[in-house]
TrEMBL record:
Keyword DNA-binding: yes
Pfam families per record: HTH_34
CDD domains linked: HTH_ARSR
Domain (Winged helix DNA-binding) ranges: 19-97
This protein's name: DNA-binding transcriptional regulator, ArsR family
Keyword field: DNA-binding
Molecular function terms from GO: DNA binding
Record carries keyword Magnesium: no
InterPro entries reported for this sequence: ArsR-like_HTH, WH-like_DNA-bd_sf, WH_DNA-bd_dom, WH_DNA-bd_sf
Length: 119
């Protein structure tokens, strides 16, 4: 199969840029506070909440909402084992596709690329 067609087979839940940023950040730590993720990703509160809800529904993350000293709300987010596996698999797929495209490009370096060359 052509490497370009493999791009269409990527997990769209994980591949969406904001969710990929969230999952990648969470894969590097034990847990993160909502406000930290918001600052890190540059997303608005509503947008971040929406993406987190999708990831939680897919069981890729766990969200914990609680109060500090009974007054200060705090939301923390943790990646699940399934989420960690999904983001690792995604980055490996992208790297594999990228290598295949580079190899194909090197193979066709001094040629005019046409439809027949790619099939």
């Amino acid at each position: 199969m052509l490497p370009y067609k493999e791009l269409a087979r990527l997990d769209k839940l994980v591949h969406e840029p904001a969710r990929l940023a969230i999952l990648t950040a969470l894969s590097a730590c034990t847990l993160a506070e909502f406000l930290f993720l918001q600052e890190l990703t540059g997303l608005t509160k509503g947008n971040l909440s929406s993406h987190l809800a999708k990831l939680e529904k897919a069981e890729l993350i766990v969200i914990d909402k609680h109060f500090i000293r009974k007054k200060i709300p705090q939301t923390t987010v943790r990646i699940t084992d399934e989420g960690r596996a999904a983001v690792d698999r995604h980055w490996k797929q992208l790297a594999s596709i990228h290598r295949a495209i580079q190899r194909q490009g090197a193979h066709n370096e001094n040629h005019i690329v046409s439809r027949t060359t790619l099939t």
